[in-house]
Amino acid sequence: MSNDTVFSPPKASGGVHEQIESFLETVLRGLMRPHDRDAVAEQTGKPGRPVILPSVTLWMAVLVAVLRGLKSQRAIWRLVVAGGWWRQPSYDIEDQAIYKRLEQEGWKPLAQVFERVSQLIAHWLQPALQAYHQRHAPLASFAKEVVALDEMYLDQVSRRLPILRHFKKGDVQLLPGKLVALFDVRLQQWRAIEYIAYAKESGMKRAYRMLASVKAGTTLVLADLGYFSFRWFDELTELGYSWISRVKENTSVVVLHTYYQAGETFDRLVWLGAWNIKGKYVVRQVQFRQGGQIRQYFTNVCDPTLLPLAEIARLYARRWDIELAFLTLKRELGLHLIWSSKSVVVLAQVWACLIIAQVLQALRMEVALRAEVDPFDVSLPLLFEALPQFSSQGHDGIMECVRQGRRLGILRPSTRLRIQAPEIPPEQLIPLPQGTVLCRQPCYRQEKSPDKPTSSNKRNAPEIEVHPQRDRLVAILRQREAQIKARTRQAKVEQIPKPKTLPITPKADPASQTKAKVAKTPMPAVQPDPSIARPPWVWSQPLATSA
Questions:
Q1: Which ranges of 496-537 would DSSP assign to H, the alpha helix?
Q2: Can you tell me the mean pLDDT for 309-326?
Q3: Which of 82-86, 218-222, 322-326 has the lowest mean pLDDT?
C-alpha cells in the first residue's frame, strides 16, 4: 500500500473490530514493508539465527492486544504463537523473544503509524465537519483550529519486580512518566504527544515544541492552570497564538479599560501584575456568576465583538475534552495497567493506545456529525456494542446508529456541566479609546519558572522586601516582650509565702522608696503611633488589640 491511501468509513461486512483491524493492517503493511525489506537486507550475510518474526507482525500483535483488551506482554506472545488473526501464521518462538524484540525495535514505528493514521482520519472527517459547520456556528469562528493543552500522569506500576520492591507505595519513582498532549477539540483527535520519563519534570518546554505542529495566527489554545505564567502568555501572544485561561487565585491586575460592568459581571482590559511581576501585553478579563460560583477568565483576544464573554466560557468548558480523552486511554484502552517498567515498552504501549483511540474517536465523531449532536452526546461504550450488531446484519453501522441511536440510548444528552454565561449586547459595550497603549516593559524576574530551579540564597532573592516601618515595629515588639516578662516576674514574686517572723523595719531611704514605687507601678501599654500605617501581617495583630 502506498502512503497516499485515503481512509474510508468502515464497510458493512464483518464486526467493528474486524473492520478496524483490517484498516490498521493495511496502514501497517504500507508503512512497514520498506522497513522489513531493509531488515532482511541487513540480516543477509550476518552470522546467527535469522529473524523469524517480521516487524509488521509484531506491531500488528501489539495493536490487536490493545484493541482486544489484553493486559500483558505475555498475551502478545500468545497471539503470535496461536496465529489465525489477520490471516497470520503461527510462530514457534518463546516469550522472551517477544520481550527482546519489543525492546530492540523501539517505539518509533508505532509513532509513524500514529502520524499516518491521524492524517487519514483528519482527511476522512473534514467533509462531515464542514457540512456540520454550515448548519451550526463553529467554536471560535475566527480560529481555524482549537486545541487543548494538558498533561497526564501514567498510573503507578506494581512493586512485583525486585528492583521496585524497596520503594514505598505512592513513591514518585513508581510513576512510569507522564504525557504532555495537544488535543484537537473540533475533530476530537490527538495532534501531538510528548513523553516525559520523570513525572515531576515540567512540561513547558515540550509544550512549546508541540505548538509548532499547529499554525500560529489561526489557532486558539486552551491551557490548564498548570501553564499559568505571565511569560508564557506573552510568548504565546508574540508567536501569534490566541489563548484562554482561567484566572489564578491572588493574581493582581491593573484595570486599563472597562467594556461593560453590571454588578458582578464585567468585561475589561487589564495589565497582568500590579507590583513587581508585570506582563508585557494587555489581556482581557471577564467575570460572571453562575449559581454560587464566580467564574473568571483571561484571554489575549481583546475585541469583545470577536470573542464574546459567553463564547469564552463555552470554549474553556471544552478544555475538559482532553481530560475525557485521557480517561478513554486509561479506562477503555487499558493504559492504567502498564505492561512493563522499561521505558521503551511503555512508549510502545502508549503509542498503540493512541492509534486505537484515534480510530475509536473518529467513529464516534462521524456519528455525532451525521446526527448533528455534540460528540459527548454519543455514548462510546454503547456505540461499539451496537456497531458489530448492525454490521453483522449487512447494514451500515454508522447510519443505523444515527437512525436508531436515540431509541437505543446511544444518542442521549451528555451529563457534562454546562456553563450558563450572560449575553452582553454589542451596543452596551464601551469602545476602547483610540491611541490606547497595549504594550509595556515586562518584568518576569520574580516569577517562578517551571524550567529553572529556584535559588536557595535568600539574601539575593529580589522578592524579599523590607517594610518601611520595620525598625519601629521591631521596637514595639521588644517593648511588648519586656512588658510580658515583667508581669510574669511580678506574678512569681506575689506567689512566694511571707515569713511569720516580724520584719525588721529599716530606716527610711528616699532612694529605695522611689525604686519600690517604680517597681510596683505597672508598665503602661504600648500605644502604636497613629501616623504609622497598620501593618497587614498576621503576627502584628495583638499589638492593635492590646492598645
A1: 510-520
A2: 94
A3: 82-86
pTM: 0.74
Residue 500 pLDDT grade (very low, low, confident, very high; cuts 50, 70, 90): low
Q: CA–CA separation, 463 vs 19, rounded Å?
A: 61
Specify if 299 maps to a domain.
Answer: yes
DSSP string, 320-386: HHHHHHHHHHHHTS-TTS-S-SSHHHHHHHHHHHHHHHHHHHHHHHHHHHHHTS-GGGB-HHHHHHH
Helix (H) or strand (E) holding 301: none
Average pLDDT, rounded, for the chain: 80
Q: Give the residue among 472, 462, 480, 459 at the shortest CA–CA distance from 535.
A: 472
Write down the pLDDT at residue 440.
94
Q: Are 338 and 376 in contact (CB under 8 A)?
A: no
Q: How far apart are CA 244 and CA 224, in angstroms?
A: 9
The DSSP H or E segment spanning 25 is helix 16-43
Distance CA 264, CA 282 (A): 21
- pLDDT tens per residue across span 69-94: 888 899 999 999 998 877 788 899 99
**Residue 462, C-beta contacts closer than 8 angstroms, at least 6 positions apart:** 276, 445, 446
Cell numbers standing for residue 427: 451596543
Question: Would you give the distance in Å from CA 81 to the centre of its chain?
Answer: 41
Residue 426 lies in a domain: yes
Check residue 11 and give its pLDDT. Answer: 43
**Residue 199 dihedral angles phi and psi, to the nearest 5°:** -65, -30
Q: Which residue has the cell 482549537?
A: 146
Assess if residue 459 is contained within a domain: no
Note down the domain range covering 273.
Answer: 246-305+422-452
Domain contains 487? no
pLDDT, position 3: 41
Terminal-residue alpha carbon distance, the chain: 88
pLDDT at 35: 52
Read off the C-alpha cell for 193.
504527544
**Cβ pair 195, 347 in contact under 8 A:** yes
Distance in angstroms (rounded) separating the CA atoms of residues 436 and 427? 21
Query: Based on the structure, what is the number of domains in the chain?
Result: 1
Helix, strand, coil percentages, rounded to 5, for the chain:
45, 15, 40
Cα–Cα distance between 349 and 110 in angstroms, integer? 9
> Where would I find the H helices in 372-469?
380-392, 397-408
